Queue: 2 jobs
Job 1
Amino acid sequence: MKLTSEKQMNKFHLGISLGLLLLVGLICFLTGRSFLSLHQEEPIFPSAGLTRQFRLSHYLPNLSHTPGDTRVYLFEGQEKGGNILILGGTHPNEPAGFIATVVLIENLKVKKGRIFLIPQANLSGFTHNDPFEANPQRFFLPARQGIRWFRYGSRLTNPVHQWPDPTTYTNPAGQKLAGTESRNLNRAYPGQPKGSLTEKVAWAIIQLIKSENIHLAIDLHEAAPEYPVINAMVFHERAAELAAMALMDLQMEGFDFRLEASPPNLRGLSHREWGDNTSALAVLLETANASHGRLKGKPSVALIVEGRDNNYVRAAKLGRLFVPYDERGIPLSRRVARHLAAVKTLASYLGELFPHQKVEFSDYPSPQELLQQGFQPFLHSPRQER
Ligand SMILES: [Zn+2]
């Protein structure tokens, strides 16, 4: 009798164990599938003004077929002029830079000079999203036809693509940093052709700047509202005059930028190493993004797109922030409008200071249009559907 009940108990435990095993297997399958889905690139629909689209490995062949081989878009005018490079997505959890470049790519027409755009500078960083931050994997914006999706990634290269991190990281410029920073593209300049994936990407970007004779290079970022270097225009010393002139115009337009000189001893950052290692004028722009701040409440798609968070309203009232912040928040459209306003003004003063480096472009939304109409009229669907 006792033996039978023991057998039944064993069967019962076996059943529970198999059930749990199946449940764990199912969770692994679903989370694995969700994780791998982040490797799918979001579609970008370039305007008819696009001259050529290619990959960054054009400048470093051994980057080819790696997760760092990101898309490059070239818009070339009929007339010769200056050359500008604009980077979004150096940090894939800072969507304003990424979306500003997408809006340009989908609307731009260049009359004079050339504009190179890299919307996802650290492409690997778009394939994961810091699980402990509980951020959504994607966010959504209204487009001309329907809704478009974009990935919200991580500040760092995916550890699946670059592992392990060293205990301390000495970057190619000789700066010692925490080990995780070895996966931060904006600490990896000037890069190394046979270095880590992140260093190869940095090296290829430097090669692009050199071989395409880039005159002005702009790196678009965002920062938490409690971070002191916010709403900033960080400039390499050779770009000081350009940045100062642009700043005055932007302030008159109602965009409150603050100028920050690139610290000469902070090595590996774009504004420092682009300026020191190439002849380009280098500028980095920051906007305020509540969705990657430390004070934020629950992460959500709405927080990324609308930039509204009650914790930040409270922090602003306590004087803890470095930007004005109220119940209206700081929406993505306003952050992208700031970036586009700065790009336009910097490009315009490049031509004023150096007439042979003039770049003329049109057909992209003005900051006012973006503020009033949002993204919908400026994000497209496949060309044949327009
Ligand atoms: Zn950044």
Note: The first strand starts at residue 52 and ends at 55.
Job 2
Amino acid sequence: MAFDQPLPASLSPSRLADFQACPRRYQYASVERIPQPASYATAKGRFVHFIFEQLMSLEAPLRTLDAARSFVAPALEAILTPQVREEIAMDDALEARLLAETAVIIDRYFTMEDPRLVVTEGIEERVGVTIGDTPLIGIIDRLDRDEDGSLVIVDYKTGSLPNRNYDSQTFANAELYAVLCEEKLGERPSRIRLLYVSQGETLERPVNDVVVKARAAAAAAAWTRIRQYYDQGSFPETPSKNACRFCSFRDLCLARGVPVPPR
Ligand code: SF4
């Protein structure tokens, strides 16, 4: 059976992660484009990202704590649209929770770095490149120029810190951003910095040649398989506790007889 919808024009790190977790999820999300309702976690992520984007768009000396707090009200307007409010069943209690958690995040963020000292080369930068025949695209939260003159990819994380023995997946998206940057700018970022703003902790890792080549190769291999599955008219499901736990398509898969593990 052929798909009615065209194959997506490019592959982003998050869609690659979908595919690697479960090809059927990629089919539903990226090929069939079945809408995925917002969750509290995704809405909170967008809310907080909006505030930091506005803050970092200011001239460096203006990036103060008060300035960050002043973007909370615009974020309510921009991110918590009537549709999002309905999807996450937002009531007064949930909104109060979001505002309280955001206040903590903003305070913690200012213990992690002084944004007035940050030199940004890009904010929410959309970078698209084709490597070989693999079209890649990504939106980078921040591309900084560090004190030593090198480029650093900075990614805000509003979820929990990974456990101590975090695996390579923690950095996977940002490492693919490094591939995009190197291809687009001709300069390889030296480091990836993940700001876990809910906890006020930073995870950092250098970018090296092995990693860049491995991420580019993994994306190319995935794109080849995506095109094969697309031509076949079906992407296989690979249910697992980890992949299915937060998947938006659990009910759809269960209705189609896929053995989705319980949460
Ligand atoms: S519920 Fe599980 S098997 Fe179904 S699409 Fe999601 S990850 Fe794949």
Note: The CA atoms of residues 172 and 179 lie 11 Å apart.
